[in-house]
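seq as requested:
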Amino acid sequence: MAKKNYLVTIDRNRCKGCELCVHACPKQVLAMSKDINEKGYFFATVVSQPDCIGCKFCGMSCPDSAIEVAALDEAEVAGGI
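struct tokens:
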């Protein structure tokens, strides 16, 4: 059975840099950016997309609802999304 792929999307301008998502991720898919958002916060960013297992712990831990995790179908993966 093939590994299911997931897409993690972070709204960088909703993120206030609390780092809860980074600590919640069991696969270390997320890290804090060295850039700042329009509000002046270092924001969470995806650093290892292929390692995501789709647990959604990051999204559940985010107090600002800045993270979405979506399952990709094979066509999206083959198309390079």
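Helices lie at 20-24, 57-61, 74-78.
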